[in-house]
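Here is a tokenized protein:
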Amino acid sequence: MKHTRWVVLIFIGILLVSSILPQSMAQKKDRLIDKILIRFFKYTYSNRLIPGFVFNPFITPWKIFRLVTPDLFTATPSTVDIEYLNQTEIIIGVKDPETGGYQRADEKPIQPLFPSEYFTFKLEIPEEIPKDALVYTFDPPMIKRGEKTELKTKLTIISNIPKNVTLAKNLVFRVNVTKWQVASNLWLPPKESRGLILGTLRTGRVGYIRITWLLAASKMFGTGFGWLSGKLLIAQTTYIDIMVKINRFHLAKITPPPPIEIRPNQLVSIPIEIQNLGSHVDSFNFEVNTTADTGIKVSAPPTITLAPGEIGHTSIEVASSLRFHNPGTVQSINIKAYSVYQPEKTFNSTIILTTRGIYISETSWVYLIVFWTIILVGVAIFFYRVRRKLEKICKKPEKPWNLPEEKKHLEKLKKENKEKYIKTLQMMREEYISALLWYRSYQKAMIKKIYKKKISPELSRRIFSKLNSMYKQVFKKKEKEPVVKTKKKERKIPSKIVELKKQPLEVIKTLADKVKKKAERNEKERIVLRIQREQQKQQKKIRKNLI
């Protein structure tokens, strides 16, 4: 009874251990109990406890735990510039820490449960890159375990990204390395561990009943890993990130307007067009200057942000100089645009500007209006005063046909005799015209008289004083000059002029006034005689008509 009890306990322990081992192969080891058991088995295996007492007697290999070092793939280089992406070859492989090179595919032994093992590679492209923009190849596309080659592949990427695609600052290309295994017949142990149900194995040890493997491989008593026999399984998936740096390419095109003409003291907004020909969304600043010396002032447009290929519109403010008259000055405005990310790279353009015209400021207009108003008012006052004085001296003749007595007389004639009415009216008109002529000639004579009395004496005094001063200066200069001994012809000065020079100024003035008075009297007499003649002619005509 004692022996049978121990046999039953051992048999149950074998069943439990054999059911745990396949589970460790088919499931993830995330549970706490799994981690504890793995550590326990690692410790006991290193001390040769479990292999000597449990696994060897029951012919259950420890390799079922699959506690192997994973294959760590790396990318060389791991960072690539997008400008050199087409020329760069990226090596994906497993580094050998001892030699510094790459491991060989035939270094590790093949597992008996999984006789076929190989690696495949795939490149995951970011979503912001359009389809068919990148073409990639792996050489070789697949590596098989056990072949006499290095555990590496060469990745080549051919880039054909359109210019209008806006890319992020950096891109991450991810390489997916998948390790595939083909399972053998998992219902039975490996070939080197197989034997008779009862009997002696090749190692010389006594065989035992190995029905526990079959029970663990079934779904009823175990995990059912036997159903995976002959299938392709994913054993390991590794992701390798490759950083692709996107260098900004800054380029802009400035389109200036056609030549513009402005007037002096005018504020103008000149439109310009700018296009972003770079690789990214870019912001452009502007600098504006002019070589003109005419006082023109310019202000740069604000910062503008454009997407790749986008055309933007902005404007430059220009203020012309304060010049009264500009016949036409041609000047240029230089525009410089640069990216805020690369200020040293500039894009230039030129605007041709012509300033032409006449400018009168508002204050000048006010001064001109006030000035001409004062002049017109002064002229109006002058003529008004002259007219008032003339009216006091002589009134303008009235129209005879507007007098009440003459009106009645004309009305009677109009009713009685129309021919006589017409002749009488014509005679009155001629008489009125002659009266107007006399009035105007008399006005002119009186204006001349006023002018001579008030203005001409003053002018004569000024002219005489200037002539006198000039005469004295000339004679003084002649006295200072050295006397040359030459015979000069003596000029005979008229006696009248000598007498005038000897006479004082008052006597000369009185003589001039007398001459003026005589001239005025003669002119008045002529005017009176002329008026009398005209009146006599009119009287004769009237008498003839009456007869």
Summary: The CA atoms of residues 457 and 512 lie 9 Å apart.
